Amino acid sequence: MARLRLSRIAIPVHFLALTFTQQHRFRIMSALASVAEARILESLEAGEDMTLAGKGQPLDLDGYFAAPSSLRAGFGMLKSAGVVPPEVEAMRGVNWLRERLAKVTSVAEREGLQKELMMRETELAMAMERMKRSLKADAVG
Question: Any bridge partners for residue 25, and if so which?
Fold first, then answer.
């Protein structure tokens, strides 16, 4: 690939064919990458402990690309924060109610749990349907 050399920055020639907005985004991303790289090099030179999860292991991006593109950024932020999406939390709640229902012996308590389980399952089904419709609308539009 041909590169145009300006001062200390090598710019791909196809960069010149980009629109002004695209060039602006490229410059911002290049600046952010430069800052990130500088900080990483500083910490390595300082001998800081670089114990990262999965260090030296190949990245598993199957889960990332399995998620719809419109949700990837949000899912990534939730994962980084150690939080699961609300739908997953609802599924856990439904499973917990099912397990509890299997262990209950009291008729009154069983009826209360069955009502609660039915309500939670309905809420979960509605949330999943909303998500499907939203994804379908994003794909069309």
Answer: none
